[in-house]
Protein: DUF2510 domain-containing protein
Organism: Microlunatus panaciterrae
Amino acid sequence: MSMPGWYPDPAGQPGRFRYWDGQGWSAQTTDNPQGPPPAGQVGAAGPASGRKSAKGWVIGVAALLLVMVIVIGVFAANALLGPRGGQTVGTPSATRSGWDDSSPTQTPSATPTPSPTPTPSPTPSGTPSSSGSQAPPVACPQGDPSFRNTHPNDGRIHGGGLSFAKIPGFTDGTSASGISWAYDVGAQQKSISANWISLFAVGTLRIADGFTDPQQGAEAVMQCMASSGFYRGFSSRTDLSSRAVTVAGKKGFAIRSEIRVDDPTVDLEGDVVEVVVVDVGSPEALGMFLGAVPIGDAKLIKQLDRTVADLKAS
């Protein structure tokens, strides 16, 4: 998966991180991967220009005059032709995702306001759920992945009432911010190529945000993954499996999919992504795990299998 953020320096400097903006690497490095983007980087805020060129002003006036001429012509034509018998004016029907997008995304607060309840339509296993140059738009809730509860220092990654054993060769936590629909996110990642990472994470899904049960929550998270900045050039999603699971005796649901991309900046097909959502016994929240490893990477796919099998309720 690719997304703007600080990543271990591809030049190999130990303890240093370099910023990837979705198009290229920054010249600046840092030892703090939680810091803001470097000034002038794509995606970072820059100073707005205080001047407007005379050429732009003239073009704007000309465009306004053209619009006025068209409007006057339309009114004149309607007056001459009169009403059109039997003609009705309709509105195009909206294409719905698995979420109810009729209301704006909620912003986090101390006491969350319930969001519209998602109603995903699961895709039959083994068939593409979508295709095209980008994923279908999904209005995922706005959480706070950086909000953290207190967790033990026991060699495991904790979040949302779930945990998994730390993975050798992976770096802790630098891409947790990309999982923007969740809270209390703990994560590990590994750089696969210049602009691609493998990611494992756990966190909290709030029921007030519309994650209502493990099966619906797993589908909703998979939709959020496929339509997020992780997968620029999204081309398709194929579900490999969907099944009920138990984690430490607690009921959950797991979906494994292939998310493919058509991105000339990467030489990978996409990721195998697994999402597991568990009823951890809280009346307010569900526990979430997600893992993403490159399609065709047998070693990392086995690591994904081991990590899912190792999930514990903490």
Residues 42-58, 74-137 have pLDDT under 50 and may be disordered. The first helix runs from residue 54 to 81.
